[in-house]
Amino acid sequence: MQINFGGREIALKLVYYGPALSGKTTNLRALHQLTSEGSRGRLMTLETKDDRTLFFDMLPLAFRAPGAGGGMTLRIKIFTVPGQVLHASTRRLVLQGADGVAFVADSQISETEHNAASFLDLRQNLKDLNISLKQLPVIIQFNKRDLDRVRSDDELDALARRGREPVFKASAVNGTGVLETFFGLLHVTWTRLDAEHHLGQMLGIESGALLPMAARQLGITADVPTLLSSCVGGRLNPAPQVTP
Amino acid sequence: MTAAGAPHVAAADLLLDERLRLEDLVDRDGLDELCRSFHALFGIGVRIYSSDGALLADATGEQELCAYVNGMPEGRKACAATVAAVKARDAGDAGDVTHPCFTGATYRIQALEYDGRRVGRLIVGPFVPANVHAGPPATLLGIDAAVDPERAAALIARMPRVKPETITRMTAHLKSALDLILFSGHKAHVTSQMHLASVRESYRQLEDKTARLQEAFDRLKELDRLKSNFLATVSHELRTPLTSIIGYSEMLAEGLAGEMNAEQREFVQTIHDKGEQLLSLIMGLLDLSKLESGTMRMTLRAMRIEPVLDEVVSTLTPTARKKGVKLALDAATDLAELRGDPERLRQVFLNLVENAIKFTPAGGTVALRARMVEGGGGAEDGDDEGLALLAPVRARLEVRVVDTGIGIPARERPKVFDPFYQVDSSSTREYGGTGLGLSIVKRLVESHSGTIAIEDNEPKGTAFVVSLPPHVTQ
Hints:
Chain A has helices at residues 24-34, 88-95, 112-128, 153-162, 178-197, 199-203, 210-217, 224-228; strands spanning 2-4, 9-17, 44-47, 53-65, 72-80, 100-106, 138-143, 167-169. Chain A is of the alpha/beta class. Chain A starts with a strand and ends in a 16-residue tail after the last helix. The model of chain A is unreliable at 240-244 (pLDDT under 50). Chain A has one domain: P-loop containing nucleotide triphosphate hydrolases (Rossmann fold, 3-Layer(aba) Sandwich), CATH 3.40.50.300. In chain A, strands 1, 2, 3, 4, 5, 6, 7 and 8 form an eight-stranded mixed beta sheet that branches. Chain B has three domains: 11-162, 2-Layer Sandwich (Beta-Lactamase), CATH 3.30.450; 220-291, Helix Hairpins; 301-468, Histidine kinase-like ATPase, C-terminal domain (Heat Shock Protein 90), CATH 3.30.565. In chain B, helix 9 (262-293) packs parallel to helix 15 (437-446) and helix 11 runs antiparallel to helix 15 (437-446). Chain B is rod-shaped, with a radius of gyration of 49 Å. Chain B starts with 10 loop residues before the first helix and ends in a 6-residue tail after the last strand. Chains A and B meet through strand 1, strand 2, strand 4, strand 5 and helix 2 of A and helix 1 and helix 8 of B.
């Protein structure tokens, strides 16, 4: 997070992490399509010929909070990392300074090991950056729900209940679960940062008003609580942490 | 708040909140080209300024009316003032303002935005709004006494005329074209930054690994040195009591402590022989460790090989005779001088010849042949370029120790120089030996800048070929 008082701006960085071909870029494309132009910029994708992400994709969003003294702007940049194993250093670079991470897993049973390996890779990269996974707001998306041979809903629900991270189900290629995932991530990230840095106060809004404001400015008609309610398991509203 | 703990990369900041400047994202010439094509298409001037007021592109031709007005001192002054005011004018909150000129024409000032921030201004004009049909305004006529109303009216009529909504569409189009250029520029910029950061990060990782490897290598080298030292110390300490064992058993065998019966003498003799054997093994270890640790003391000086070979032959002739093996020396008369340690070279050939005798059955022959060999050229280099110059320095003194013994299979040859290696471990029993001799020989030859190789001896047996560089006098 960066706060620029002179420019009256707060910048957040959200990262979509996950194994190769799990649909991170597809999530961003869908998010780009599902939102209106006013608050979001162009989707920047840096791809190779074969549609694999080379460095990252980036979707910038900007929300104006009508606070006192002309209001402030909350800028959110959403990044994806390249999933292929060989781009390890790029993943670490993109991950640096992340305020929240959405882990995009592939629901296919055959991908179970890749999901786990990528999550361990995330943990290791965070460790290299001196960030503990415990301290970082993280949500998990099980993508590709539309395919055959995926883990069943019941299985996922049972798995989700055992973990700490809120879990969302999605089929990014059809645009389902994409907004839910994004708002879930924004929710956990905002909750954490607001508790630590009183961002709501800075923006001149009630803490609970950010998500509805973001939804409105993105032209999303769905109700935020409804979006968040699709989460299974995990702790979407963690007990407020006392920061030293 | 961005991971302050990670010291090595700054790309996160670059990615998250970069202050983008118009002049960094676009190619100046390309921008100029875009403005010129706009000017060529609509006949209206375009200027682009960066957010700090620097002129980045300018495609304006002087309108006839402007040239006319500029021809008068007061007109020129008023024109300069208008241009300065337009240049300084902010685009306002809405990002789009119109600035009037005293001639009745107007300028359109449009804010350029990228990534939600203002990065510069676009100024289009002067042009006459299409809905204005009045004659020359009073501000124009009154600017200078010399203004001719008819001429002014004629020139105004020749100014570009555009409807306000058309100019809005035109500037919007220009803006969106620019936006695309900015986006492409930004993307290229980010890509190259990211590429650099990735390369730097990979380089850092490699450096880390190299440093760790170097550290491990240094530690191993140190361990190796310690091992050699240890070996040297232990060998030395073992030798001292062994000398007493050999000495006293020798005295016993000689009857210095009283007569012994035959059996007692045989036992004592065995103690003595095994003691000697142990001593030579320890001496070998000592030599090897000294050679490995580089502490073998050697005095290299100009010397001749013939006396060394003579001595080896005379020393080993009794051994050969006892075994029924013929020992011959054949040295050429043109042998060059060497630079070496005669004592160590004696050790080399003593060892090789002793070995040869050991592995040659009775009735066989062991020969020592020394001659000069032209080195270089031919097969080695593939041709003979510069051989006239190179051959003399490539000449080698070659000593072959040839036997008619059991031979060494080709695949075993590289290994026989390893310490403790025996071609056939059962041969240790048959022929004796520690397996240290040849590894010491190889190291001694190498410390004379020489090489040693094994070849077949036709039709039967082995040839050890020692090749030594001649002593080159400066």
